[in-house]
Specification:
The complex is a heterodimer of chains A (334) and B (447). Chain A is mainly α and 334 residues long. Chain A contains 15 helices and no strands. Chain B is of the alpha+beta class and 447 residues long. About 12% of the residues of chain B have low confidence.
Chain lengths: 334, 447
Amino acid sequence: MSRKRAVKKEEIRLAPFIHTEKNAPYIYLTHIAAMVPCAIYGSFYYGLRAIILIIFCMVTFTLSDILFTHIAGRGGKGEYFDLSSAASGLMIALILPPDTSLITALTAVLFASIVTKQIFGGPGSNLVNPAAAGVLFVCLVTPSAVKGYAEGGGEGWFMLRTLIFGSKSGEFHDYTNCSFPELITGNFPGTIGAACATCILLGGIFLLMRGSIRMYAPIAYIVTLTVFFPMSNLLAKGTGFSYDGYVAFMLSSGVVFVAFYMLGDLTTMPSRFTAGFFAGMVCAMLTLVMRAFVRPDVALLAPVLSVNFMSFVLDFLMKTISRRNLRSREVDLR
Amino acid sequence: MMTHSQIKVFVTEALLLAIVSAALIVCGFLWSNDRADRRLQREYKQKFGTVLAADSYTQLTGRVLNDFPEINSVYRGYDKDGTPIGYVFDMTVVLPSDKDTKLDFRIGIDFETSRVTGLMCEDPKVDRRLKYIESTLKGKQIPVAFRRADTTVSDDETYAPVEGLKDGIYYAQRLIDDRSKFVDYVEMEVKGGKITRVNWDAFNLDMTTEDRSYASLSGAYEISGLDWAVQSYNICHALLKLQDPDRLAMKSDGTTSIVDGVTCNIQCFVDLSKECITYSREGYTKDKYLSAITRIYTETMGSSPDADGVRNKAGYIAFSFEKTPELYTIYDDSGSARGFRTVREIEAIMNGKRISNRMTPTPTPSPEATPDPKNDARNAEKGTEDGYAKNSSEDEQTLTDSIDDLPMSEVATYIYPPSDSYVEARLAIRAFNTGYKFLKAYLNWRV
């Protein structure tokens, strides 16, 4: 009786009990910082419209999350500073073409925020990458609105009309005509932030240094793309391997961006080495097959969502396999 | 949670990352920009070289583009010295009467003279068919309009003509209007005993409204299927080939299935063509017809058409005799209408003569004449765009007061429409006219 009373007097707190500097706000802050080079690239090449799109997506995503959190009654007491909204909003802007209208961007943001994130429980509970889902949604629903690929440079720096009207002459370019310097610096008509391989690599290195990504899936993804590219080229264009074609594909299609910022994600990708590696391979294979049949942005983003959906199952399976002949505590350490 | 020193390290690293990346981006831009420019110019040359052979191109931007939804992008071409030599338009042109009919064009316009330098359709099949238009228009000034869709017979037709035709120009019009206030007429020319030219059109009782063919091209008169003007052109061409309206195989519902692209009711056309053939056999020419109808109007209404202002610019009587049915209706003994008199017969009755019985046109209102509130509204809206303005000069016989919302007074070039690809040619013409309108707006009327 006295013991029961003693327990009542103590303040009982629930898990987690582990305190680390790498908490959720830190990880999202790192992601935002890693995407800054890509944002600078987009602003430099595409000017005001890119800057407005980036800010617009970040702000609307944050507002949408806040609003939905209040409506759902999940509002906290300020102990958790959520940066996931801004990170997802920034990522949406970076994978949109520069001549995208605000209404298209808003559609992507709302879909990503409400359908893929808030409905599943908010930050950290989403099954799939919200940015990939949002952009894929607008690609499928309004395909012509997400084709505003434009040449960068000074002439269109102050152009704002595409924010309202979108692009009239959007088309997918053939990047095999681009030289290596153009491809590595992103000086070709691409998305706002996923075209400059140099900036993505810089951001990726920053994430690695900060320990905010798992590299199993990205490595498997890049390796699989490299190995199976000739077969994919045969399927898509009827030609075998060509160095120019491979380099152009790797540097222009956005696969580097996907590898670092989407497949390295701690929330939506498998946590175990084997599962992550397998997921990366599957994602690459799907991309290579799909690029022969669907538009490039869909071929890039749809496989990411597919492996996001598979993540939980993959982790579970790998854990079950690892459990054989081992005690549970050892399994967790594998 | 991060400590202050950790935050400092993080911020420093993030700033360093931003600075390094900014430096790399600028250096990369300077390193690759020349190559990117060359690549871009190569792409432009490959894309636009066939319509404007320039040394370099720059894309035009500006708010004025928002007013031209059909224009995807506009480029200015320069020669080696950097002197502007022309414009290239990348357009998706839509047929006003059928929004589903659209084609992607690239057109080239000379910088100084606004003359056509080239035309290319993205669809290779259509592009081949439009070679005639391109060769005709190259070097000609925009804007462009079709001549009246009169058609002339080609030499390889083998159908036997109707017997007894006398050479001359013959004309017949309906004595009552349809429900859109259009009065159909057919004009037919006979040479060497053969029908060599046919034109089916309709003028409006409201003389500020354009003729039906032009109204259909400008989108003010809409029917299902192709433009009415296109269908009229096709059926006239078919009659030239077949030489006899009976060979058009008109069905009981007034349509025909033997002429491609014609889905409208052709009853009126067949009746008026037969009337013209009758007149041709009798030598009752257009002049006589117009004199007779003028007399009929004068004696019926008690004043001349000119005094009442019912004679339109083409010289036709834009009047409906629907309030005097006894004038043109033939009744049987029971008092029921069994047919209708022609102008020739009414004139003969007025002269106290009796002529032999002949075909009796049945003024069945055609389906396309069914009033459409939208159509009526558009007609009313375009009422200020005056209709038919036929001049004596053959070159200007196509005049109406507007095409593609451009006043006809601005049209610089007239061409004959091709017989096999009228719709595509019409879209090409629209592309040039839209380009002209853009240049007017962009250059502040200094075209």
